[in-house]
Write a structure and sequence with these properties.
88 residues, mainly alpha, Rossmann fold, 5 helices, globular
Length: 88
Amino acid sequence: MKKCLADRRLTNLDTIFSRVSGGGYVQDRIASDANELRALIQRGAQVLVCGGRDMATGVARSLEAVIAPLGLELQTLKSTGRYLEDVY
């Protein structure tokens, strides 16, 4: 990931881990960063979600709420390749 950031294939990386001291949940981070996420999505950002199915379901719900004020739906992002999931 550091290499991808260094060579600009990846322009931003935010992580959160639920099983570490001071960590939290992705869904909560999405809600707290809603304004930034909306701005990024308006500029064409791609959202990549990797992890467990339960987490991915929560992320999808949270992101739906974030993008609703933009008049967007998650299915639109999926159909244009801007929302990708790798879940198990």
